């Protein structure tokens, strides 16, 4: 599936999850959710369903300005063939200094591919809104330094039971929370991992909570608590979209 055939920049979404019935029905698939959050007019966005073995041609990689790796119900530390193939692709993109944005599973698999450690979160599931604190003394090369309007703490939608244990050598942790010590990390100006979901809306998370409850991944009390907390607060979606777009489009260069 291809995005708009614009003359401008070209990006690829590496989709590591199958579309839920809800997201298909309401948004037409996760591809549309990501492009609405991170895309801009005149760009071309291509979709690769890596979870189904659909990968970009290695000879085409140089034609892309950036890549986004989505979330996934799979474990980033698993050894499924497509996950190992994705790790190799991410190592290649890193060597090419291509911009790669990893979201949730994408954040974790990026970390794993580049030499870090990921695993089950010691403190269990994190589902709902989480206040993430931006580290203020990151090095000058960080893309966030030019985004003066970013507040010191931002709310983001989270839905994960795995986490980054140890970032790769040369990586910098640029955000943390009370629950997770690595909420964001960067490597140079070309790699960014975000544990939360900048692209998620509250209705997408509510539907996901229902599905996790129905397949016994979480308990009823936990699900109800997460949903009730979602009703009284909002994620800082506009800020997160600005961060992701600034990173992908290289507006700090």
Description of the structure:
With 253 residues, this protein is an alpha/beta fold. The protein has a single domain (10-249), classed as 3-Layer(aba) Sandwich (Rossmann fold). 31% of the residues lie in helices and 23% in strands. It contains seven helices and eleven strands. It has helices at residues 21-27, 30-38, 81-95, 105-113, 202-214, 220-231, 237-249, and strands at residues 10-14, 44-48, 66-69, 99-103, 117-120, 126-134, 153-160, 162-166, 172-176, 184-187, 191-194. The strands form two sheets. Strands 2-1-3-4-11-10-9-6-7 form a nine-stranded mixed beta sheet, sandwiched between helices. Strands 5-8 form a two-stranded antiparallel ribbon. Helix 3 packs across helix 4 (105-113) and helix 5 packs antiparallel against helix 6. The radius of gyration is 17 Å and the shape is globular. Residues 1-6 have low confidence and may be disordered. It is found in: Cytoplasm, Cytosol. This is Glutamine amidotransferase domain-containing protein. Pathway: Secondary metabolite biosynthesis. GO terms for molecular function: peptidase activity.
